[in-house]
Amino acid sequence: MIHFNNAGCGLLARPVHQAMVEHLDLEARIGGYEAAEARAGEISDFYAATAELIGSRPGEIAFAASATDAYTRALSSIPFEPGDVILTTRNDFISNQIAFLSLRKRFGVEIVHAPDDPDGGVDVAAMARLMRGRRPRLVAVTHIPTNSGLVQPVAEIGRHCRDLDLVYLVDACQSVGQLPIDVDEIGCDFLTATCRKFLRGPRGTGFLYVADRILRGGFEPLFIDMHGARWTGPDTYRPVDTAARFEDWEFPYAALIGSAAATRYALRVGVRSISRRTPALAARLRDRLTRIPGVRVLDRGPNPAALVTFDVAGWEPAPFKQALDTHRISSALSYRHFAQYDFADKDVAWALRLSPHYYNTEDEVDAVADAVTHLAASRRTKERC
């Protein structure tokens, strides 16, 4: 199997699998509460390792069930009022866009999408003008969308947010584990990510970064439980000082420990090394695909990441993916409803997504390109018959 669906779910590293199995075995032997107490050091290391990965402090990290779980917890802490503006991009992740629409329905907020520049990424100058003119309650940007290899200039946007003291939320779901992330350099107040993709952690895990200024500013999630707050009197409660206020009391501890192991593994491999290797494999694949008649590579931006999207003339999406499956190549599909603005601009209904990682090889890239060449040619042959 050639695993080119790392933007969906990366392959678990062996230490990750081992850490999870060991904890589950311990729970089976001595009980869940007792196992968590015995593995307190490994549990604590999730926060230390994640903080090291993104350049923050452990107290600014909250465990989450997914990137979307982290994202909605962050959104729930912002006191939206009717007429408030959410400033975002045309390439933000589908679940984020739906969350914004839900907030518009519930609270009457206004959603403003900054225009794109000619390369396909957000026009930062236009976005900065909208910040000054509209004074948004929230600026929200997806670093790398799920539907293409576009990399948005999140640090450049962050500088404008800092200058205007705006709350800034970054979805780093596809970039954590693929590219170096430094929250101070980005200048974000919230950053969300999953652990299952390029970080190679288990499913059902993610994290939320909450900047100290947000914690000190009194932001707290809409629903907060006894883990995130202290019941100080019959009619009062006080949130804890750390990002733990965004967590729940109950944890999947084996998965959390596995996520810590995945992060430590990525740090040992070296994120900067990963950030050179992984996009280089994607660039090789993109170059091969561009040369195939009938294949249209859809990625935009000057330095695309390791998400390669394309369509093939004469093929429908599901049969094409199934054909790749028969070649033992894992892939993913994106549809128009995943990316309403982007796919409308590109005039496409679907895209096949291939996403290599550092453990893939050049030979695998070439094998995938050869398979696509064969499938594209077979459809052209059928059309001529």
From TrEMBL:
Source organism, top-level taxon: Bacteria
Keywords, comma-separated and alphabetical: Lyase
UniProt xrefs under Gene3D superfamilies: Aspartate Aminotransferase, domain 1, Type I PLP-dependent aspartate aminotransferase-like (Major domain)
Q: In what residue span(s) does the Aminotransferase class V domain sit?
A: 6-368
Q: Which Pfam families match?
A: Aminotran_5 (PF00266)
Would I find Lyase among this entry's keywords? yes
Q: What is an example of a GO molecular function annotated in this UniProt entry?
A: lyase activity
* PANTHER family according to UniProt: BLR4730 PROTEIN, CYSTEINE DESULFURASE
Protein name, entry field:
Selenocysteine lyase/Cysteine desulfurase
